[in-house]
Amino acid sequence: MNICKISGALGKDPEIVRFEESGVHEATLTVATHRFKNRERITDWHTVVVKNDHLVLTTISPFARRGTIVLVEGELIYEHFVNSSGSKVRLPKIILRDESKFKILPGPDRAALTTVAQAPVVP
């Protein structure tokens, strides 16, 4: 089974695209996680591609912004290509399809949301 689960802060606002032929929306998230090595904090960046139109339109587009803390679970894939200098590159991505595998967690940016429209929050 191929499952990858991470939680971290969005490093920038989501990039949302709409495919003209199908009308389906897709979002790309850049998520930062942290780890420590020899008492030094290291930031790792992860690319998450959300392939769920409803999730993109109802949760990610209105509520996810730079700094939002998220929990995502998806399939880990690797894209392979040759860069401009001729080196082979292996780029990991997390593909999220299931709406129940994405949560916005409480964080400092949550105060900006109004009581009228609250994003789903894990208790």
UniProtKB/TrEMBL annotation:
Signal peptide: none annotated. InterPro entries: NA-bd_OB-fold, Primosome_PriB/ssb. This is Single-stranded DNA-binding protein. Gene3D superfamilies: Nucleic acid-binding proteins. One of its GO terms (molecular function) is DNA binding. It comes from Camelimonas fluminis. It holds the Pfam family SSB. Keywords: DNA-binding. The keyword DNA-binding applies.
